[in-house]
Amino acid sequence: MDPDPGPSSKARAVFALGLVGFLTGAFIGGVIPATIALLVARQAARQAYEAQGFLTGSAWIRRGRRLAWAGIVLALTSLVIASIAGLLHLAAPPGSQFAPGTD
Fold this sequence. Notes:
Blueprint: E1 6-7, H1 9-23, H2 31-50, E2 55-56, H3 58-91
Parallel strand pairs: 1-2
C-alpha cells in the first residue's frame, strides 16, 4: 500500500535557481536567485523528509545548494574587489603627486 517514489518538482527548481545564481554571481545579481534557491531547498528537503523517502531528488537539492552558495561567494568576492578598487581610486588623486618643478 506504499506509494511509488516520485520526483520532487522543487528539487529541479532548486538546481535551476542555484545554477542561475552561480552563473550570475560574479555580477552581484546572482544573490537573488541563490537566496531563493536556498529557501526552496529548505522546503524541498523538509517535504522529502516528511515523505519518508518517497520523494526523490535529494541529489538535485544538494547540487543546487552548492551552486547557490558558490554564487553567493562569487557575489561577495566581486563586491569586496569592487570596494577595494574604489577605495584605491579615491586614495590616489589624479595628476602628479610631486612638488612643482620636480622632474
